[in-house]
Amino acid sequence: YASGKVPCVVDKRGPDPYPEHDSHGQYVFLVLKAALMTGDPDIVREFYPRALAAIDYMESLRNERMTPEYADPASDLHRFYGILPESGSHEGYMNKPMHSFWDDFFALKGLKDIVRMAEVVGDTENLPRLIALRDDFRRCFGQAIRRAIDDHDIDYIPGCVELGDFDATSTAIGIFPCGELDWMPKPETTQTFDRYWVRAEGRIADSIPWHDYTPYEVRIIGALALMGEVERAHALLEWLFLDILPKGWNHWAEVAYREDDFPGWIGDMPHTWVGSGFINSVRTMLVHERQRDSALVIGLGVPEAWVVGEGISGDDFPTEYGPASFSMRRDGPKIRVSAAVRHQPPGGLVVTVPGEGRILSASLSDGTPLPVTGREVRIASSSFDLVVTLE
Fold this sequence. Notes:
The protein has 391 residues and is of the alpha+beta class. The protein has 10 helices and 14 strands. It has a 5-stranded mixed beta sheet.
């Protein structure tokens, strides 16, 4: 739209005017990601004016929650201060729009990415404003999460301000693709996914009553891996494969039932958001760009079982630093890792060593020793051959 609004849907009837506030940040994210993955900065230059317009529209929405009645700490409306207005972006709120943290996570992602785009195109006029907007939005968003937790007396991150509802599938996008794990309140973030896991483990063991669920939960696989819960991530991955529909086809419907032949609504099939969530989660386990230190991480979610025998390898994985290839193989007490990417990431290449055995040493193939932090080995290079010796 001329206002910069990005419609939630465009179909044969044209753009849908229904208010969903996740689309604006998602649009900016999409433009930058396309440029990074293709190595084509001209994409940023071509679409920057539209992306900036989307951010300006999103800022106008946010300003609706920054008027004096919302700014007053004594007002009940203060709990909405500085975040986006209510919307139906989250399908659970379509009947009654809410102030959804789903929208705010994508808004923050868009704000982070527009700053990077402004730097690429050299927009020195708008850059200070965009940096300030990004930082202030993150501050207000964090305060809104804390107020919602306190107001509802809960120990997890809720899906929206009004309800204090539990929705780990929605919260997962804060971790990926939005990359906010480092500042999300740690106890409540951990409890969100611990609580989810109790329910998921019950379904996996068929030890609790349940009827249906949405395979959107594939998003949680990547979130668990990024939180260091690799065993849980793999258990969930294996269980979700039981509900591909029809059996033997490589896709999921939007809704899965405990009874395969239950005559219920299945939504879209194949559901490409579920499919892309699966691809992103598994890719995160193998290769992913870590936002906090601009490193390319290899093997984050690779279990020890995958590296025995012939090991695991991948060729020409698309990344923000060009195609990447890697291999990991266990050879007695040693794990041998080779990796190469077209452009050296600013934070280097980081290998997450699979398994739990204590790491005795790590070195390049020429014998150069490397420091080990936890289960990570960082190499300031675009290619290497690495040997890790385990106890």
